[in-house]
Design a protein that fits this description.
The complex is a heterodimer of chains A (346) and B (98).
Chain A (H helix, E strand, L loop, with lengths): L1 H25 L4 E13 L2 E16 L3 E15 L6 E17 L5 E8 L5 H5 L23 E13 L4 E9 L12 E10 L4 E10 L5 E10 L5 E10 L2 E10 L8 H4 L2 E12 L13 E12 L3 E12 L4 E15 L9
Chain B lengths: L4 H22 L17 H13 L11 H14 L4 H11 L2
Helix pairs in contact in B: 2-4, 3-4
The chains are: A mainly beta (346), B mainly alpha (98).
Chain lengths: 346, 98
């Protein structure tokens, strides 16, 4: 155990020395970015408070390599039983710790721990300062088992780039890991997307084969569309042997030029609709046990300095019981260079 | 010798990456990427802003106060994560840290 820590220490030190040498010539600096937030929620009558810190380290190595590390530190304060006292729990995880090698315009090779690239929510909309509703979509567990992260290798990139369209792809494999901070399922999968820049539209499809316990296939499709600058539409469909469903979300940012634009320009109403259909009983699949419908309404307010206040209400309908969900959250996105890093020159 | 599924996928990924690497080294990227001089230099920041809105603006707003050497690192990460082309990366850098 002790030897393992020494190895980690020397590997880390080597990385820092190499990074300093390589990045100095490029005039690059490691960056610490990420977000912090505080979430208040009342879900089916149960109140919870969740402070979250999500720091990300970006460590460049020369002109082709990048190390990315993302830690997710979450507290959870809720009553242990109805009428009982509030209790504190904490959940810490490494979301990703990956080495990226940008080979060329078409291919990037990724090794280590990375976010499982199934549809778009997990990779692109996961951070608390980006997604419009703090509750993940109901179908989120499909294709992202077991932890949303994978330990293994991935290739990705832009296969074809034309002025009118662009084809992107991702293919990955993951090994089984039961480690507390690096847990992952044994799986492989791929995603292909087509982006039409003139229409501001991206559509794509995903596949994942889960290779532990029962071998199962999951399929998905996604859409990201910005028909006009102020309107944003996103959606996903996912299917697994245990269930299938979809979510679709729309957001509207008021224009500065509209009446009362100076006041309204920082406000963004959002709405999301979801349906889930249970196809077969599942154990620990993190999906609802019965067909479920849900609609969310929310309002974002953007303050200066990357601070966002969000409030939302959701109504969920299910044969196991209908419920209301209220959420209020404040998020802050930070980004700064690594302190005391030497300045380089071109 | 029977290959397990994960080894098969690993082998396929390695072959795929070798193919793209060799293809890239064999010849310049013909037509796949807009040539560097396609956009006049004065308009590059504006073009970069448009590319930011098209690619990155679908998920988030531009970060505030980014120095050039921070921007290079952040955009490199987004090139991997958001599947930006090399030309997108270059122009978005012109916008974020002119």
């Amino acid at each position: 155990m002790k030897r393992s820590w020494y190895l980690h220490f020397w590997a880390g030190l080597l990385l820092v020395v190499l990074g300093a040498g390589q990045s100095k010539g490029q005039d690059l600096v490691p960056v610490i970015t990420g977000s912090a937030g505080f979430i208040y929620s009342k879900d089916a009558g149960q109140t919870a408070l969740q402070p979250i810190i999500n720091p990300i380290l970006l460590f460049p190595l020369g002109s082709k390599f990048l190390v990315e590390a993302d830690a997710f530190l979450q507290g959870y304060v809720a009553r242990s039983s109805p009428g009982g006292s509030y209790e504190w729990q904490s959940f810490n995880s490494i979301e990703y710790l990956q080495l990226d090698y940008v080979v060329n315009s078409h291919i990037t090779i990724v090794a280590g721990r990375f976010l499982t690239p199934f549809n778009i929510y997990n990779e692109r909309l996961g951070p608390i300062w980006i997604h419009n509703f703090q509750d993940d979509p109901i179908i989120y567990p499909i294709g992202t088992r077991t932890t949303g992260s994978s330990d293994g290798g991935m290739v990705r990139g832009v296969a074809v780039s034309r002025p009118d369209w662009l084809l992107n792809y991702t293919a990955f494999f993951s090994a089984l890991s039961n480690s507390s901070h690096f847990g992952a399922g044994r799986a492989f999968g791929a995603r292909v997307g087509v982006f039409l820049p003139k229409a501001n539209l991206e559509i794509g499809t995903s596949y994942q084969r889960f290779l532990q316990d029962q071998h199962t296939n999951s399929y998905g499709a996604y859409l990201a569309w910005k028909p006009v600058t102020l309107v944003d539409v996103k959606g996903e469909y996912a299917h697994s042997p245990q269930g299938q469903g979809y979510w679709i979300e729309g957001a509207y940012r008021f224009s500065e030029l509209a009446p009362l634009g100076r006041i309204l320009k920082n406000i963004q109403p959002v709405i999301r609709g979801q349906q889930f259909f249970r196809l077969a009983p599942g154990v620990n699949d993190e999906l609802p046990q019965a067909d479920t419908q849900r609609v969310d309404f929310g309002l974002n307010y953007y303050f200066p300095h990357e601070i966002r206040l969000n409030g939302s209400y959701a109504r969920q309908f299910s044969s196991t019981g209908n419920s209301n969900n209220w959420t209020l959250d404040l998020t802050y996105r930070f980004l700064f260079p690594m302190p005391f890093w030497p300045k380089g020159g071109q | 010798m029977k290959l397990s599924s994960s080894r098969f996928v690993l082998l396929a990924l390695l072959l795929l990456s070798s193919f793209f690497t060799l293809k890239s080294n064999a010849r310049p990227q013909q037509g796949n990427v807009v040539p560097r001089n396609a956009v006049p230099k004065a308009d590059e920041a504006k073009e970069g802003e448009e590319r930011f809105q098209t690619n990155c603006g679908r998920c988030h707003h531009p970060p505030e106060d980014l120095s050039p050497r921070e921007a290079r690192v952040v955009v490199r990460q987004m090139r991997v994560r958001a599947m930006l082309s090399a030309e997108d990366e270059r122009l978005i850098l012109k916008f974020l840290a002119p």
